[in-house]
Specification:
alpha/beta; 2-enoyl-CoA Hydratase, Chain A, domain 1; five-stranded parallel sheet; two-stranded antiparallel ribbon; 11 strands; Serine protease; Pept_S49_ser-pept_pro; ClpP/crotonase-like_dom_sf
């Protein structure tokens, strides 16, 4: 009994359907191996929180991801399983997310007795910055950024809603705006109280000078700038946050294993290695950055 063209077609179809599963398994194995290696080098519990825009299978519909309750459940479980004498390393790449989930994770991080380090290879905005504030040390790429943590009500910044009420006569402000302003004041007060708790954390040691705490709170929570304003390494250091510049190569290798799903032609292309095969060296960790003039709020 021989194979016909029809049989070859079905074999090809079967192999084609199995290929994505095999590739996914291979990628998962590589991720686990790299994570395990980094964890052994650091002698710590390493947790990744990486959010990229995903594509729904088959339809290719973009789906933005952010910090969710499911994320907080998984991270809290990882923290619970970590012995008190083992440090925690959290690798962050996120635009932010739900306030409840973010605060749960941040509280669990400051309650961990050993050192907590947050690594930011590219950006950790909004809720991501809140998690970074819970760390004893924030290790960033020289070009990575954090962001403000001022609360947002719907599509509007809480600080801007309050400004409308303050600038207009009370008789010209509708009831809904007044209610939103009242909620905005409460939201800002709650965020400021929580950020103060994070910055006053002194376990295993004081991470922020007490005289810098209130100025940091004022800069991050009062809406001086837009919510997507990028806070650079220099600016964060100027504020007094515990910033260190320079990521281990292992972090970049891990990030390469979480690529942005492509829906068509790639938007960025380059040749990874020079033609003469001289391998470019990543910058080594170099402690706090040189003092440079920075733009203040």
């Amino acid at each position: 009994m021989g194979f016909g063209i029809g049989d070859l077609f079905w074999i090809f179809l079967l192999l084609s359907s199995l290929q994505p599963i095999w590739q996914r398994r291979q990628t998962e194995y590589r991720r686990f191996s790299s994570l395990q290696k980094f964890q052994q080098e650091r002698k710590s519990r390493v947790i990744l929180l990486i959010h990229r825009q995903e594509s729904i299978s088959l339809l290719g519909i973009p789906l933005s991801r952010y910090i969710t309750i499911e994320d907080s459940e998984q991270i809290l479980r990882a923290i619970r399983l970590t012995p008190d004498d083992v440090p925690i390393d959290l690798i962050l790449h996120t635009p932010g997310g739900l306030v409840l989930a973010t605060e749960q994770i941040a509280r669990a991080l400051i309650r961990h007795p050993s050192k907590v380090t947050v690594f930011v290879p590219h950006y950790a905005m909004s809720g991501g910055t809140m998690l970074a504030l819970a760390a004893d040390e924030i290790v960033m790429d020289a070009n990575a950024v954090l962001g403000p943590v001022d609360p947002q009500l719907g599509n509007f910044p809480a600080a801007s809603i309050i400004k409308v009420v303050d600038d207009k006569p009370i008789g010209e402000v509708d009831d809904q705006t007044l209610i939103m302003a009242d909620l905005s004041r409460k939201a800002i007060a709650q965020v400021q109280r929580f950020v103060r708790t994070l910055l006053k954390d002194s376990i295993p040691k004081q991470k922020v000078k007490p005289e810098n705490i209130e100025s940091i709170i004022d800069a991050l929570t009062t809406g001086r700038v837009t919510h997507d304003y990028p806070i650079t390494v220099e600016e964060a250091t100027e504020m007094g946050l515990p910033i260190t510049v320079g990521l281990p190569r292992s972090i970049y290798n891990l990030m390469d294993m979480y690529p942005q799903p492509q829906g068509g032609r790639p938007s960025v292309q380059y040749i990874p290695m020079p033609f003469d095969d001289r391998r470019p060296m990543l910058p080594l960790p170099k402690g706090r950055p040189m003092e440079e003039p920075v733009q203040k709020y």
